[in-house]
Amino acid sequence: MKAIATVFFAFLIPAACRADSLTVMGRVDCGAWVEARTAGAAGSAESLVQGVLNGLSFGTGVEFWSARGVPVSRASAMLWIDKYCHENPLSSADTGAIVLFEQNTGWHPKA
Questions:
Q1: Is the pTM of this model over 0.85?
Q2: Residues 80, 37: contact at Cβ < 8 Å?
Q3: Which sequence spans correspond to the domains of the chain?
Q4: How does DSSP classify residue 24?
Q5: What is the pLDDT of residues 66-86, one digit of tens each?
């Protein structure tokens, strides 16, 4: 168990990624997400996803957790990211969170 946690946390070491002229720190790729969730050691990754969802709500002014009057639990959001990562293994959990936000709220970035 300690070995799995150590490997997982190695993925969380800040590594800068460039995306649309923004630097993003600490991304979790879908492979690391699935491994961590399977091992029951995904607390940090889950907090990252929750932070992305909350940040999108704050930044856009659009409600996520009760969008359209339907409450979304943290567990449901994480299960959605599980499915996203299984279907998009070369993506990342934070990208999945953005897709979830868009699908749940109907919000899309302005072109």
A1: no
A2: no
A3: 2-105
A4: E
A5: 999 999 999 999 999 999 999
